[in-house]
Design brief:
- The structure is a single chain.
- The chain is mainly alpha-helical.
- The chain has 19 helices and five strands.
- It has helices at 5-8, 27-35, 58-69, 100-114, 136-142, 157-163, 190-205, 230-239, 250-264, 281-291, 297-313, 319-332, 337-351, 358-374, 378-385, 389-394, 398-414, 418-436, 439-450, and strands at 88-94, 119-121, 129-134, 149-152, 180-185.
- It has a five-stranded mixed beta sheet.
- Helix 4 (100-114) links the parallel strand 1 and strand 2 (119-121).
Length: 462
Amino acid sequence: MRRSRRLMLPLYLLLGACMPATPTDTAATRAAAVDGTSGLPPMKSFAAPRPQAPVASNQDVARDFLDLAFTLESGRPLQSFTRFDTPITVRVTGAPPSSLAPDLRRLLHRLRTEAGIDIALSGDPQANITVQAVSRADIRAALPQAACFVVPNVSSLAEYRSKRRSRSVSWSTLKQREQLAIFLPNDASPQEVRDCLHEELAQAIGPLNDLYRLPDSVFNDDNVHTVLTGYDMMILRVYYDPALRTGMTRRQVADRLPAILARVNPRGQGIVPQRLAKTPRVWIDAVQTALGPGANPAQRRTAAIEALQVASAMGWTDHRRAFSHYAMGRLLQATDPQAAQDQFVLAQRYFGRRPDTALHRAYVASQLGAYAIASGNSEHALALIGPHLDTAARHENAALLATLLMLRAEALELSGRVAEGRSVRVDSLGWARYGFGSDWAVRAKLREIGSLNPARQGQGTL
């Protein structure tokens, strides 16, 4: 099993430590004016999916597929290929939040239409995959570092507890996939539940590994992509191609991949391979220490410096070098805002203009936009934020979209376009309810972003 990326690298806590909240901020007062006595505006949800077709060489995809399918996250190799070799049935148990059913139906529809997988909801107690919705406390009691996880050969959390020390729940000894359970939190934000669903269901039916070298995939522990991408659907389509079957060795799968990929991704035949270097364990460990749970500030800072040193020594100029700068910027925000901004600028430079790093650039833009607002430069903030609103929407990241809209609202008000700013802020709230969940979390985000605006210092009280 793997630890959930939801806790490991919490990137969508977007502006934390960017600027201190102040008791003179009036964002909470403005929010109250919007929601009246009946709560915030209704939660918004995304319409038709808009995945982008992958732009990748089939030589690179073949290499990625083999590393994803035949290695565990720990680096331990797997001897044989496993998948479901019959139609897959999925059932839901526990106490699911209201958002889970529509998000699950939407995901299953995408898996059928985009990846060609025969998968459907079922009420059968013997369903292949059980999605059990339980409390975060129950999940932490079973696996302290996880926000959600998937386990083979069980159908409930109670059954997992009774078998947790046995080989039957070990991915490394799994010979075929017949029954698995996914444990999701029922007391998290709708987006967190959905993100867990995408990641854990993708692992339940497909690859067991994650690769930092993949810029456009949920099979990456950097936590940037949380909804299955066009690249991921291609990987899953290959995973369930009729030419493959459970029990194959790495060599047998490798021999069949060129013909499979020529059918599944014909445009990849003519793309020059990037052949990105493998990601060394020392960099992975440094990033996870810098941004994950359990380390103190000094340890995080040391780890972030090490990650940058490794990235530089490896000669990287790809998204991993950019992510190293992003991590350093996050850690410098509270102590040295100018140095943090410099790191974000470097991150944006290394992310470049590739389509597969668009979402990464949107995250960085939220940070740079916040600094521009805090500096009183509303026009620069609007220029930074505007191009990334559609990116956040296209990748169905409501938390990021709400944050960008709230930043845009502050920048508009700072520039004197008060009515337009208020309208944009109201628009942000429905997305914030999906992205951040509870009303108090939405208002906390409003307060945090409202505190950036220098024109509002000294106004009102909470």
